Amino acid sequence: MSQEKLGKAIGLTFQQVQKYERGANRIGASRLFELSKVLDVPVSFFFDDMPPEVSETGGRRVAGLAEETDAYEYDPMAKRETLELVRAYYKIRDAKVRKRVFELAKALAKSGDVEH
Question: Does a structural domain hold residue 66?
């Protein structure tokens, strides 16, 4: 199958498929799943030639080859749930109701801080 046909099948340009193939861009799990369906192979097919040292470390990079990264900081603003909550909040047309929902959320958060 050509890169162009594969790209069309998953809604990408052939250039993006080339980047995946060359390893210039990482492939997410959902994209791997799409590719496996289009190519009619199990997702495990993409890991068949994985070097033993990578599979033994569970996908972690071998020491000395990984780029240094900052420690992961949890950011609740980056969660889908947060975005959905904000969107739902702003769909409430009545300003008074919206304010009451806001006050309710603050009260619930505060009650969660209290030890029982």
Answer: no
Token pair for 109: 């958060």
Give the predicted TM-score (pTM) of the model. 0.42
Query: How many domains does the chain fold into?
Result: 2
| Residue 8 φ/ψ, nearest 5 degrees | -60, -40
φ, ψ of residue 24 in degrees (nearest 5): -70, -30
CA dist., res. 46 & res. 36, Å (int): 8
pLDDT in tens, 8-47: 998 989 899 888 888 888 888 888 889 888 888 888 877 7
Q: Are residues 51 and 83 in the same domain?
A: no
Alpha-carbon span 58 to 7, nearest angstrom: 29
Structure-token pair, residue 31: 């994209």
Q: What would the mean pLDDT of 39-65 be, rounded to a whole number?
A: 66
- Percent of the chain that is helix, strand, coil (3-state, to 5): 60, 0, 40
Domain span at residue 103 reads 76-113
25 is a domain residue: yes
